[in-house]
Design a protein that fits this description.
Length: 157
Amino acid sequence: MHCPFCRHADSRVIDSRTSDDGLSIRRRRQCPQCGGRFSTIETASLNVIKRSGVIEPFSREKVMSGARKACQGRPVTEADLAVLAQAVEEAVRQTGSSQIDTNEIGLAILGPLRELDEVAYLRFASVYQAFDSLEDFEASIAQLRADHRAGHRVDAD
C-alpha cells in the first residue's frame, strides 16, 4: 500500500477492525518513511458476469435500482431498498464465488422482494423468471395464495 503523503511503497498496519456489516475491514496504517497515518478499507472483490460476457464489480446501487423499478408506486422506502440490497449482497457472497451471473443476482433478489412487497415481487419475477403468458402470472399468484393459506411465506428459488 503506497503512502498517500510521500508515495513510499510500504506501510505498517497499526489497527484493524471489522465493519458493522462484517463485509469489510478498516485498517489504520502508518508510513515508516514520513510517519503519516491513513486508513484503508478492504473488501473481498465480487464481480458480476453480465449477459454480454462483460465483467464488472458488484453494485448494491444496481440491485436497488432494479428493485426500485419493480416497487414503483408501492409503499416501499429507500431504507427498505437499502436493506434488501444488503441482504442480496450477503446472500451472493455466501455462495463463496468471486464471480456471479446477473441472472443469479436477479433470482437472489426475489426472496427478499417477496417478503417486502408481493406486487413488486410479481413485477420483478415476470422479468427474471421469463413469464411468457398470463398462466405464468396465475401460477405465481396461486403459489403466493397457497403460501398465505399455509400461514407462512416461502422464499422463491
